Predict the structure of AD domain-containing protein.
Amino acid sequence: MYSFTPEQIVSFVGHGTTITIKSNKVPVKGYLYTIDPNTKNIVLYDLDQQRVIIVMNHDIEKVSIDDKDKIDVKLMDSFFKYQADNEFTQEWIDHQRERVIGLFEKNRIPIHYDEPVIHVLGSARVESPYVATSVVCDNALIRKRVRDLLLQLSR
């Protein structure tokens, strides 16, 4: 994706980023917040104007990352009010993990707990904070079924 590995993209979050637009060759500058893995659209945070810029994949000609210009990701998260709304305490995470393990055992689904990951059916993983969006699996059918099970806990 844009000639970067996923590991590089994660390490670039918070770095100054310049994107050259295909249609008008005008550079768009901001701090990298995320790259959507499906659409490859890029989300930048403009610190000066306190706004979000979304650059669509089809209009991106070039992406440049400045290794020296970086801001704290928590600053961007606070702008989105993400951190405060989604902060899980360790106590809540521990309780949720026990609930998830109990749910799998109750439904006789084979699991293996290897802290901090719950391995399900030998192919899926449930990672902290052990909610439906924490399920990772290459098999879409198994991923959906495990997520559906976890959604039962939120009802």
Notes: The beta strands are 15-21, 27-35, 42-46, 51-55, 60-70, 111-114, 117-120, 124-126, 135-136. The CA atoms of residues 14 and 32 lie 5 Å apart. The helical segments are 6-12, 73-79, 82-85, 90-106, 140-153. The mean pLDDT is 86.
